Amino acid sequence: MKILITTAYLLLTITTLFANMANPRSPHSITGQLVPAGKVKVTHERIDIRLVTDTSDDRSDYRSHFSVVYNIHAEEEIELPLVFLALNMDGLDQVLVNRKEIKAKTMDQPGSKFPFLRLKDGYYEISYDSDEWKRISLNDAFYFNAKLHKGENSIQVQYSAYMGYDRRDIHTRYEIDYLLFPSRYWSSFGPIDLYLHLDGNMEVLAQDLGTAKLQTDSIAHWVIDQVEKKESFHIEVGQKTSLPAKAILWVHPELLALIGSLFLLYLHIRCIYLKYKIGKYRYALLLGNLIIPSSFYFFCWFWSSLANYLINGSFDEKSRGFMLLVIVTLPLIYLVYDLVLFMIDRSIRSRFPT
Description:
Elements: H1 2-17, E1 30-36, E2 41-54, E3 61-74, E4 78-87, E5 89-97, E6 100-102, E7 105-106, E8 117-120, E9 123-129, E10 132-136, E11 141-148, E12 151-162, E13 174-179, E14 188-189, E15 192-197, E16 202-207, E17 214-215, E18 219-224, E19 232-239, H2 243-251, H3 253-277, H4 284-291, H5 295-312, H6 322-349
Parallel strand pairs: 1-13, 2-14, 2-15
Antiparallel strand pairs: 1-4, 2-3, 3-12, 4-11, 5-6, 5-12, 7-11, 8-9, 9-10, 13-19, 15-18, 16-19, 17-18
């Protein structure tokens, strides 16, 4: 029972090991399809996403660059107001209508009025149709007029976006989110061809798009049918890793640390037992009480640092707040562990009367 109590306490330390002292999330962009203020048909959409290395702030990182092309069929010549919504976007690079560049403006400009925008209860709302209004922030909305001629037209939007990730992760998982629900507000919406361009060092870690039509070291291609039924898509990408690094992350550094600490706990109790049985290991209790309480944190540091070295080339612990957590909790761990092992020592001693 005492061993189980000690094991349970070690398990509890896992839940607080990576306590974070600040926001662990990086900036993240959520972008989506154009929102029409009129009914026209989108016959096809093509999305190309390229991963771009960003070396700002003295560190290498990745951002995504979108090129989205809409093939639109208009029954007659029309000037179509369009809204592009994007949360925390890095920058809108270019808008082309039938290969001619036009100016897109933010909707927060003084004196701007739009028939599809209203102010209600202190918040701005945009109308997707006559019956539905959705709250937005004007800082995240861009507006432009597309002059479409009768027949086939194309609209291309190019922009850069942040890929969010958790700074605590050893293997960084960059996230791409794209909203699809505005497709239901067009007259009709054809299939989407999505191309994710990867360099040889990146791979797809997770996605909710189903089986790719094509996937190589340099590109992944999905086809999204029945677009109106899907709210969004989510993709996670990351650098390719070696087999040893994958094995450590699959087992998890904290679990490996727990296994190591439990093995040392077993050896500690075994040495205490032999001390009273055959008279060896006279200082087993003292030495074990000095070494083992800190072993869990040491093993966590070692396995995390090794995985970080194999993936990122730096042998260090990546968790924010790790040292502060050790300083705050380690004295309590020593107190509890020494007390429990002292009771175990007394219990074993009572079995071998002198």
